[in-house]
Amino acid sequence: TLSALDRFAGLAGLDAADEARTADEQIRAFAIKTSGREQPIGQLSGGNQQKVLLARTLLTGPDLVILDEPTRGIDIGAKAEIYALIRRLAADGKAVLLISSELPEVLSLTHRLLVLREGELTAELDPRRATQEEILRHAIPRGPPTCVPASTANSSTASASSRCYCSSPSCSPRRPIASPPRRTSPTSPAKSRSTA
User: Fold this and answer.
1) Is the dihedral of CA 103, 108, 109, 113 positive or negative?
2) What is the pLDDT of residues 7-28, one digit of tens each?
3) Whole-prediction pTM value?
């Protein structure tokens, strides 16, 4: 109930009974597996922690819910429960902004699909017709990274390294990707000295 304490505040302070009743209702509504409302969230499984955070958010009565990777690191059963909660939110008229790298999840849960690459919008797709391959085509940077000698990648360290660095926007400017081929210069024939 931390996100909505004002709901339980009165002239005499917090209404502990109402707060406890609401916590129990949320535990039942979101099927949170816990030994009781006093159990620390950190002791719950990953899926149940996600459900607690979602329940806490919805106590504030938002019209828009932003979910960033809501199923990362949780098991298949917990994922199915989170999916059901997301669908229920949409059915209740809530706007849900789902940010996810799980393509099957994106295709099955969304009504409108926007693909971003390096922070820029690259496509707006219909999830009923889009495929994972199409999403990846818009999401992955095009073209291989180019190899730039250290002398041009960073002039301040030009003499410190002869390695090559990735110049693509998709990688950090100082990430080494290869060593450049060594240049060999033809040796000039030795000059013989003549002595008198």
Assistant:
1) positive
2) 666 656 666 777 788 888 888 8
3) 0.58
